[in-house]
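User: Design a sequence. Structure:
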């Protein structure tokens, strides 16, 4: 029988604001304050970070700290890969969302012949490349790297040779590129995008279940449809960015808060219904930033509520 292992990746160098590196500790504090022994139940692993890179002068403005982000993604990939090969189920707690590339790379390296589906629960598409990014923050690029999509049709930036080299390195972690097919990606809650991302979404026909659609048509209908879309995938990875939640309802304790999102019960239902497919092989939670929380530790408390809830589903459907 599989066992859960928690992988803690306290890296925030892919984000535009500091503080997501403390999100994991904030989630643990939320668990302690709720009286839960959750973090005593499972083995865990800490991924070595290079957060000191935030003090270095930037030489790659369209992919800030890309060499260090690549380094962290490789380390996380190795951790996820070893966990899966050890017949464990990794729950990944990360700082910023650039980590998702490392997690996806680890899954593909562990199972190179398996087709991987991605359910991306997020306010943002994270489909920029260094050639299209308006900010240079790599937490807006992990899915593009996993898809090996430069989106050169919408190129606006001239990147340095160093950026190009490291971007190619990101796309090729584990010597597998692309790691995911566009047909095998489903969004839930994406509502803050730029034109280059919208172009890529339309070009590849990536389905985005917006908040109002999920509420109008119903969670069961939308998730069933998503699973039908991913029916040819052997495995599913769920990436949950807490900015998919409504920042006005929950809190602004995340790097890029966004209004008109899901509430926590909706996210719990979405994740649990996907887990019921039995195909989920890894879940990741990202972008809790207690430094930005305007309601104490509310975002971390909400994230822990979601984690604690879906863990029960994992134990029922995915740990056999």
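Assistant: Done.
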């Amino acid at each position: 029988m599989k066992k859960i292992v928690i992988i803690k990746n306290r890296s925030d160098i892919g984000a535009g604001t500091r503080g997501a590196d403390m999100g994991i500790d904030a989630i643990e504090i939320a668990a302690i304050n709720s009286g839960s022994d959750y973090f005593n139940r499972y083995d865990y692993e800490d991924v070595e970070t290079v957060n000191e890179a935030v003090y270095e002068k930037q030489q790659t403005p369209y992919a800030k700290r890309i060499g260090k982000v690549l380094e962290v993604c490789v380390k996380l990939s190795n951790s996820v890969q070893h966990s899966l090969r050890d017949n464990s189920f990794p729950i990944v707690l990360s700082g910023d969302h650039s980590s998702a590339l490392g997690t996806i790379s680890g899954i593909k390296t562990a199972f190179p012949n398996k087709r991987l589906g991605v359910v991306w629960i997020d306010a943002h598409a994270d489909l920029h490349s260094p050639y299209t990014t308006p900010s240079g923050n790599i937490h807006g690029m992990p899915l593009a790297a996993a898809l090996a999509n430069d989106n050169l049709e919408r190129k606006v930036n001239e990147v340095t040779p160093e950026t190009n080299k490291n971007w190619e390195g990101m796309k090729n972690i584990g010597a597998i590129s692309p790691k995911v097919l566009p047909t095998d990606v489903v969004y839930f809650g994406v509502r803050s995008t730029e034109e280059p991302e919208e172009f890529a979404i339309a070009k590849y026909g990536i389905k985005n279940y917006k908040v109002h659609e999920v509420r109008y048509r119903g969670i069961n209908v939308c998730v069933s449809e998503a699973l039908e879309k991913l029916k040819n995938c052997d495995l599913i990875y769920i990436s949950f960015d807490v900015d998919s939640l409504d920042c006005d309802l929950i809190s602004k304790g995340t790097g890029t808060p966004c209004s008109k999102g899901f509430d926590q019960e909706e996210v719990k239902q979405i994740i649990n219904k996907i887990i019921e497919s039995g195909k989920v092989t890894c879940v990741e939670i990202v972008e809790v930033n207690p430094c930005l929380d305007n309601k104490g530790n509310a975002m971390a408390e909400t994230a822990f509520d979601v984690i604690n809830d879906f863990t029960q589903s994992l134990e029922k459907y995915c740990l056999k």
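The radius of gyration is 18 Å. The beta strands are 3-9, 43-46, 88-94, 116-121, 185-188, 207-209, 235-241, 280-286.
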